[in-house]
Structures are given as C-alpha cells and as structure tokens.
Specification:
- By secondary structure, the chain is of the alpha/beta class.
- A five-stranded parallel beta sheet has the order 3-4-2-1-5. The protein has a two-stranded antiparallel ribbon with strand order 6-7.
- The longest helix is centred in the middle third of the chain and has 19 residues.
- The model has no long low-confidence stretch (mean pLDDT 93).
C-alpha cells in the first residue's frame, strides 16, 4: 500500500479526464472541499494548464502544484498536486469540442495513473470522464477506463459495478451495443461473472453474498413467449453456480430484481 507511518490516509490517484470536457472543473470543485483531504491524499494525473484554467473558471481558493516527488502526495489541503507527463500543449485544448489530440492525452493519463497504482504509489483510482469518440479517433480500441486498465494490469476477467447506497449492480457487459450485449448472454460467461462477483464480495467482507441474476427479456420471457435466454443460458448458469456453493438466484425479471435488491 502507498500509505506510510507518517500518514495512514490512502493516496488516491485521480485522472483529470478529457480536457475538452467537464473533468478538470469537476476535479477542482471536488478537491476544493477540505473533507476530501481529511480522509485521503488526492493526486491528480493530468495537465497543469487545464487544471489552472478550471481554477480560474470556478474561482475557488485552491492552488495547482506540479509534483515530481511522490513520496507523500496530496497531503496539503488547498493545494491540488498534479502529475503532468507533458503530453499536451495548451493550444491544443479545444473546450467543448471532440478532439483526438486531447482524447489521446486523456487515455495516456489513465495509463500513467494505472502504473502508479500497480507500483503502489497510490492505493486506488478515481477517474473523471473520458470522451470515447475522441479516444477512438486517436486510434484507441480500448475506449473505456475498464478496458484500458484491464490491458495494463493483464487481468483475465474484470467487471463494472455500479453502486447506490445498498444497491450494487455488476454488469455482464460494458461499452457494447445492445445487440452485441444480448449476444453475450451465454451460460459460460454468466457463470464466470457469478464466480467473480462471489469471490470479490467475499474479499469485501460478505460471508455469504446473495447474488440476484437479472433476466434479459421482459417479464423473464413469460415462459419462453418472449425469448429463451432465461431457460437456455441464465438458469443453467445460476444452477451451476449454486452447485459450487454460490448463493445465486434467478433469473429474476428486471422490473422486480432492483426493487428486491434495494429492499435487501
């Protein structure tokens, strides 16, 4: 871990996001709150000029400081420390426009932040928005944070999880067209993600996590009237997970499962 005896607060690497978008402004507004520094040590990976422009735009009483010594980053409230790899010129920033130069730079900041995390310089990452179209125009095939970090960490299987209070939703697919996402609803893939979800939640401290598996079709297909993915792919995957001792249930229709999850 990046935390030291001098400070038990975790170091959080924050990517600035695409400089043509809202990322710099959002990061500045978040780090202007002293409560952030009370709980962690933030370190921004991005462009110093863009961050200074965001400070000027918001008028908030914070300063931007470029840092090279990462021994104990982000330990001074009111001072936003930035790792700038000098991959973007100020004149290339076109706010409000799709710009492949800025898209490339933003993806390179994600890579740098990931490297800092893998090296133990930071304990976790938080990311401001990318522009996927700009990243694609820059030549990137991995157009999202998850895909890029998966490549960087050489992880075999990863998943996106969204959280809102006690609602936790793990995606079977991310950044796919609807038609492609439906094609990915296969028994083996579902089982892999049920296993990943179970193993992850056990590590998070849940002794016996209960996993609800959503149906694909309206009303869970109504006995095959509206598709057969529930009987042919989802239910066999759930049963296979149960045979491994995983507390999985489903398929549960989408208009029910979220209510059940929120209610506990």
């Amino acid at each position: 871990m990046a935390s030291t005896e001098k400070s038990i607060k975790p170091a959080i690497g924050i990517t600035m996001g695409d400089p043509c978008g809202i990322g710099p402004e959002v990061v500045v507004k978040a780090l202007a709150d002293p409560q952030v520094y009370a709980t962690c040590r933030p370190l921004v990976v991005g462009n110093v000029f863009a961050m200074e422009q965001a400070v000027a735009l918001t008028g908030l009483p914070v300063k931007i400081k470029e840092v090279n010594d990462l021994t104990l980053p982000g330990d001074e409230p009111g001072v936003i420390e930035v790792v700038d790899i000098h991959n973007l010129n100020p004149e290339d920033i076109t706010v409000g426009e799709i710009n492949p130069v800025c898209g490339k730079a933003a993806m390179e900041w994600v890579t740098k932040a990931g490297q800092l995390a893998l090296a133990g310089v930071v304990d976790a990452l938080a990311t401001a928005p990318l522009n996927k179209e700009a990243a694609s125009l820059a030549g990137y095939k991995s157009i999202g944070h998850m895909e890029l970090l998966q490549e960087l960490s050489k992880s075999k299987l990863v998943a996106t999880m969204l959280m809102a209070k006690n609602l936790r939703v793990v995606h079977l697919s991310t950044h796919r067209s609807l038609s492609h996402a439906c094609d990915l609803v296969k028994k083996d893939r579902i089982l892999e993600y049920l296993e990943l979800t179970h193993e992850s939640f056990v590590r998070y401290g849940f002794k016996n996590p209960r996993i609800g598996t959503a149906a694909l079709n309206p009303h869970g297909s109504d006995g095959g009237i509206m598709g057969n993915e529930e009987s042919a792919e989802i239910m066999p995957a759930v049963k296979a997970a149960q045979s491994q001792g995983i507390n999985a249930v489903g398929p549960v229709p989408a208009d029910i499962i979220f209510h059940q999850a929120i209610q506990g």
